[in-house]
Amino acid sequence: MTQETDSQHSIIHPLPPEISNKIAAGEVIQRPSSVVKELLDNAIDAGADQLKIVIQNAGRTLIQVVDNGCGMGKEDLRLCFEQHATSKIQDVDDLFRVRTLGFRGEAMASIASVAQVTLKTKRPGDDIGYKYEIWGGEEKSFEPAAVDDGTSVAIRNLFYNVRARRQFLKTDATEFRHILRTVQQAALANPELGFELVADTDTIYDLPKEQPLKERIAEMFGKSYKASLIQFEEETSYLTVRGVLADPKLTKKSRGEQFLFVNGRPFQHRYLTHVILKIYDRWTGEKEYPFYAIFLSVDPAQVDVNVHPAKEEVKFEDERSVIKLTKSVVKKALNEQFLVPEVPEHSDYSPQSRSSGGFASDINFGGPTQKRSRESGPMKFPSRINSDRSKPPQQNKDFSQQLYDFGEQADTSSKKRQQEERSQQPDRMRERGFWQLHDRYILTQTRSGLCMIDQHAAHKRIVYEKALSATEEAIPSTQQLLFSQNIEFSASEFSLLEELHPILQRMGFNVQLLSGNTAMISGVPADIDIGDEQSVLKSMLQQYRELGGKVELDERKKLAIAFASKTAIPKGKKLTDMEMENLLDQLFACDEPYKDPLEKPTLEYIPLEEIESRFR
Q1: How many CB atoms are located within 10 Å of the residue 28 CB?
Q2: DSSP one-letter code for 280
Q3: What kind and span of H or E run contains 30?
Q4: Alpha-carbon gap, residue 244 to 73, rounded angstroms
Q5: Most buried pick, 12, 112, 451, 535, via CB within 10 A?
Q6: Whole-angstrom Cα distance, residue 21 to residue 110?
Q7: Is 471 left (phi over 0), alpha (psi -120 to 50) or beta?
């Protein structure tokens, strides 16, 4: 048998370039935000100091990045779309000292294989530039063009030739939030560069060049951050750690404002993130997430940025030291701002135990008395940032006014009368067998045992069903505010608010969307205390986003859950006899009284036999 015959029967053969490029695109280009990231990386590597990002339909229709960088010549224009063609790697050793954001030469080839690409470029000093079109990996045109210095890349109809990938994209709001985070990462890592983000003709960001990091954060995430940021920097022989931490009082109920960078490159590191959030524990409650942006600078030879197809993860040569030093610096910055540094009396600390960075990594700044359990709730310290000591603490309103409608306002005289009646009459609830345990649970005996009701979970079920029912009514029940309020949102919050606006209106929120990520609220559902509307609305958006990846429910139900979670009575709230009775009456009037909206039990039953068995 000849060699030619053998080759004809071979079952292994090289893949055509158009197929291999689409496979590579599946790893590198996962969604529109992946395209934005690759184009921004290339623009920054090209030395641009002004970048404009244009998005249409959350990147499905158009993604365009325009920069004023070094541009390309005619010879390089085609080469940049070749697989593994790059100007940043010359030999194998360069892989272990990468200083640029892009380096593998996969991005443009992968993008071009699944989209319609138009690239215009011109080098400063050249008389004329060039325009190149490539669709699905196939060249359409190559011609001279009059263009400005730099490069403009327009990506149209992403995944137009890979229908299955296009169908797996999420909603426009979700995809745009991913794009927004990608732009935020680039803008935070490069405050010396100017960024403009335009989405469907709306200017989301217009960030000037050479902008101080604190000002950039405030412009991107809200003016409330400006006076509430802690800046820090520590340098060691191995690692430099610098960044910005937010005051713990600005925590949110969902992740999304935690940023890590190494040598200007955003990266994810679950354990390091866990360590940083753990430091915040003494000031924050469970599932509260603070803003931080932490920048690590290390010798490129000490970090491998090529361990993930999308370069989202990195591997440090000495990961333990990186985590330990970062933890010490963050802990020191927070404790210096809020607490007096303290060395435990029996500490093993000595000058010899100092880390190579020149500062102690084992000092307990909080002291042994600062420890607490999660169950005790967040410990509150007076903030030295943006504090207003002239205002008296806001008193909580009587709970019965916000939970139940008794038909009249409870004034001082009525409260006094109720107290007198309680002191003169037998406790009606205890006659019926109701008690409140630790201000968290309502206990009642049954014919054959003991029933325990979780007051928070029970009220969540009540409010959830009420909110869900409100969205089905023709005319929402709204209490109008005496004075309308303007509320400023971050860009991601405002994008979500736009998506949920129709449902919020039906729930009883009277919200008007304004320009500049601002909304005006003039009415709220009757269950909300006047004065809490801003915190309730923002918390709902955060809770909704957190629920997004956890439960498979429609938008209306998730928003009702978010509303109920924020407005339900908290654990630890003492209830009056009337409130306990009404709470249970309303619970058992619900369609599903035995579970809260997230399927957690509202009550538990303990048979009398089980109780008796504990005394044998």
Answers
A1: 20
A2: G
A3: none
A4: 40
A5: 112
A6: 5
A7: alpha
Residue 212, burial from CB neighbour count under 10 angstroms (0-12, 13-18, 19+):
exposed
Domain map (residue ranges) of the chain = 17-207, 213-337, 453-589
DSSP-based three-state secondary structure for 301: helix
Reading the block at residue 386, the tokens are: 């943006």
Residue range 213-337 forms a domain whose CATH class is alpha beta
> If residue 54 lies in a helix (H) or strand (E), which one and from where to where?
strand 50-56
CB 107 within 8 Å of CB 41:
yes
Q: pLDDT tens-digit profile of 17-32?
A: 666 655 555 567 889 9
Q: For residues 555 and 507, is the Cβ–Cβ distance under 8 A?
A: no
- Extended strands (E) in 182-338: 194-199, 202-207, 229-235, 239-246, 258-262, 265-266, 292-298, 303-304, 315-316
Asked if 189 and 265 count as a contact pair (C-beta separation under 8 A), the reply is yes
Q: What percent of the chain has pLDDT above 70? A: 74
In tens, the pLDDT along 408-420 reads 333 444 445 444 4
- Other CB atoms within 10 A of residue 76 CB: 14
Those residues with Cβ within 8 angstroms of residue 220's Cβ, 6 or more apart along the chain or in another chain: 184, 187, 188, 205, 207, 490, 491
Q: Any residues with CB less than 8 A from the CB of 497 and at least 6 apart, and which?
A: 489, 504, 511, 513, 519, 541
Burial class (CB in 10 A: 0-12, 13-18, 19+), 124: exposed
Q: Residue 565 corresponds to which tokens in the numbers above?
A: 């979670």
Q: β-strands 50-56, 194-199: how paired?
A: parallel
* Residue linked to tokens 């640029």: 100
Are 371 and 281 a contacting pair, CB within 8 Å? Answer: no
Q: Which residues partner with 52 through β-bridges?
A: 66, 196
Cα dihedral sign, 535-539-223-175: negative
Q: Which residue in 82, 154, 163 sits closest to 117, CA to CA?
A: 154
| Distance set, CA 462 to CA 178, 396, 560, 589 (Å) | 34, 21, 11, 9
Q: Which of 587, 612, 611 is nearest to 601 (CA)?
A: 587
Give yes or no for a contact between 311 and 27, defined as CB atoms under 8 angstroms apart: no
Fold of 453-589: Ribosomal Protein S8; Chain: A, domain 1 (3.30.1370)
Q: Residue 116: CB partners within 8 Å, gap ≥ 6? A: 133, 135, 136, 155, 156, 157, 160
**In 514-573, where do the E strands start and end?**
518-524
Q: How confident is the model over 575-586, as pLDDT tens digits?
A: 888 888 888 888
Look at residue 348 and tell me whether its pLDDT is greater than 80. no
| Closest of 6, 63, 74, 11 to residue 33, by C-alpha | 63
- For residue 46, which of 145, 124, 114, 117 has the smallest C-alpha distance? 124
Q: Given this structure, which CATH class describes domain 17-207?
A: alpha beta
3-state class of 195 per DSSP? strand
